[in-house]
Amino acid sequence: MSKYTLGCGVVALVLGAAVAGSGCASPGSRGPNLEEAPELEENPEPADELSAAFDELVESLRGVERDIRKMPAFGDEAERVGGYRHVMRSFAKGLEAEVLQDADYPYFRILDWWLREGGDNPDQRYAFSPIRGGETYRVWGELGSATRVEFQIYAGRPWDGTGHSAGFLAFEELRLEDDGSFEVWVSAESREGNWLANPEAATTLFVRHIYGDWTDARTGDVHIDRVGFEGKRRPPETADELARRMRAASVMFATTSRTWPTFVSRRYIGARPKNSVSPPYDTYALGGAKGRWMSGGHFELEDDQALVIRMPQTQAPYQAIQLADLWMASLEHGNQVSSLTTQQSALAPDGAYYYVVSNRDPGHHNWLDAGGLRRGIFMLRWDGVQGAIVSEQYPSAELVPLSQLEERIPGFTRVSEEQREATRRARRHHLQLRSHR
C-alpha cells in the first residue's frame, strides 16, 4: 500500500487541522475536487529509520481504529464519540510519554481532565516521569490544598499486566515543612529525610495530589530533577533515537487504546450484573496505591430511572465516588458534577451517603450527572485505609424510578438549580487552578 493512501480520518489525526478541515467526504457525498488537487508522488528515496517508524505509527492508528469499532463499548452515538476520543487521547499520551519525555532531563507529564484515561480520578492530579532504575532524582513541591500526596515507582506497566509496583511512599510517611513544601529523594542508596528506593527495574515515577475538597486555595505542585544533570545541555537527538521513540509511542498508544475497554468488559460488565456494586478490594496488590481500596460496577439506565448507591461512612481519610464511560475515561467533571467526595456530599440520617446516578437532575444534593450516557461505570475509592473495610461498611446499589427517589433516600437533601450552577462554577475554577490551564 502506498504510504499516501491513508484513510481520511487517520490523515486528519496525524497531519492535523489543515487536513481535518479539508472537507473529507463519505461515499456519495459532494467532497473536494480531487481533479484540481496536486498528485502526491512516492518518495523516491529509500525509506530511512524515521520514515519506517512513522509508517509503523500510522499503521498502528489504523489497526486500533479497526479494533475499537468492533468492541462492545462501540454502541450508540455517544459511545462511538467516546471511542474516537479515547483513541485520540491515547495517541496524545503515547507521544507525550515516549517521544517528548526524557529520563535524564525529566519534567512531569500531567494527566488531568485534559487527557482522561484509565479510570482517572477527578479528585487527583496525576504526574508521571520516566526514570532510570538505580539513578538519583530529587522531587520537590508543595502539598497546597490537597488532602494527600503520594509517590509510587512502577517497573514496566502494571496497568496492562506487564509490570508491577516497585516502591511506594505514603502520605502518612511523608515529612512536610511548616509551609507544606516537601523534598523527596529517589535513589538506590538510602538517605535521610523523605526517601524512596529506586530499584534497577524502575521505569516510572508516579505522583498523586489528591483533593478531598475543591477550593480556590493554592493547589500545590511537584517537580523533578535527575541529580547531576541540572543545567547541563541536552545532547542533540539522533535519527535512530527518535525512530526508537516513535516505535515506543506506537506500542504505548496501541496498548493504552486496547487495554482499557477490554478491562471494562472483563472487570466490570463481565464480572457482575448491571446496576450492582462489588465488595471493596485492596488495590495495592494490583499495582495501585498502598491503603487504597476500591469498589464499583456498571450502570444501564432509562431516562426515567436512577441508580441509587449507598456508601456507609468509614474511617478512611478520603472517600469518594465517580462516573466513567465504557472506555474507562472519567466523565466531564468541571462543567458537570460526575464525582463527589464525602467532604462534598450530604450525609443521610442513617450515617450513610446516598448517591443518585441519572441523566435528569433529581434535585438531590448528591446527584452524579451521567452526561447523557445510557451505559457507563462507577468507581468508589477509600484512601488511607488502615487494616480493612468491614462488611457493615460495604456499599450497595438499587435501581429506582426517578419519581420514587424521595421515598427511598432518608433525609432527601434538595438543592436548587442556582445552587447546582454555583457548584459547577466552583469546580471549573478549581480545575483551572489545579491544571494551570
Keywords for this entry:
Jelly Rolls; 5-stranded antiparallel β-sheet; 18 strands; 3 domains; 437 residues; alpha+beta; disordered N terminus; 7 helices
At a glance:
The chain has 437 residues and is α+β, with helices and mostly antiparallel strands. The chain has helices at 8-15, 17-20, 49-69, 77-100, 239-269, 405-408, 417-435; strands spanning 109-111, 124-130, 137-142, 148-155, 164-169, 181-187, 194-197, 204-210, 221-226, 281-282, 293-300, 305-312, 318-324, 339-341, 352-358, 367-369, 375-383, 396-401. Strands 1-2-8-4-5 form a 5-stranded antiparallel β-sheet, with no helix packed on it. A 5-stranded antiparallel β-sheet has the order 10-11-17-13-14, with helices on one face. The chain has a 4-stranded mixed β-sheet with strand order 7-6-3-9, with no helix packed on it.
Beginning-to-end CA distance, first to last residue: 41 Å
Please tally the helical runs, counting DSSP H or I stretches of 4 or more residues. 7
- Order of helix and strand elements from N to C terminus: HHHHEEEEEEEEEHEEEEEEEEEHH
CATH architecture annotation of the largest domain: Sandwich
Nearest-angstrom radius of gyration? 24 Å
Average pLDDT reading: 90
Q: What is the name of the CATH class of the largest domain?
A: Mainly Beta
Q: What is the makeup of the main sheet?
A: 5 strands, antiparallel
Low-confidence runs of at least 5 consecutive residues: 1-32
